[in-house]
Amino acid sequence: LERPEKHELYFNNFFASYDLLEKVSGKMIRATGTIRNSRTRKIPIMPVDEVKKKHRGFF
C-alpha cells in the first residue's frame, strides 16, 4: 500500500487474533476485530460474565 495509514481493516472473530492485529499495526495499518478467548495468548481479559454485568461503555 502506498499510504497504509489511510486504510483500516475489520476482522470477524474467525480471522482475528492478537498476533494478526499486532502484525498489521506494525505496518501502520489500523485494524479492528473481535478476538475469541482462545486467541488472546493469555492476555488478562475480564471474564465474559463480569463484562455482561457492566453497563455499556464502562471502560
From TrEMBL:
InterPro entries registered for this protein in UniProt: PGBD, PiggyBac_TE-derived
Q: Which residues does the UniProt record annotate as the domain PiggyBac transposable element-derived protein? A: 5-51
- Superkingdom of this protein's organism: Eukaryota
The GO terms this record gives for MF are: sequence-specific DNA binding
Q: Where are the transmembrane segments?
A: none
Task: Quote the protein name from its UniProt record.
Answer: PiggyBac transposable element-derived protein 1
UniProt organism field: Trichinella britovi
Organism lineage string: Eukaryota, Metazoa, Ecdysozoa, Nematoda, Enoplea
